[in-house]
Amino acid sequence: MPATNVSLGQKTLAGLQATGTKSEYTIPAGQIGNEQPITVTSEKWVSEELGVTVSSTLHDPMIGDTQFHLSQIERTEPDPSLFAVPADYTLNDVMAGKPVIIQH
Length: 104
Prior knowledge:
5 strands, mainly beta, 0% helix
């Protein structure tokens, strides 16, 4: 059951240029105990600039529909305080005083 892939071109999503791909495959009747063919379809939009999926949808009759969309994308530098070591941080060396064993 090879998937068919179709390019959807480009469009702007959440302020980002994204490239879309649609994939579809069909599970033939009787292959997994199904009486009718089951067609699974997915659509994915990827921002090449950020290297992330901006939007994706999956339609699978066996598990239902799933949607994912990025939103509120901020393209600014994060607050440096998010990366600051807390003032009361201490480093405990759990290996202090223990022998180091090197195996070859």
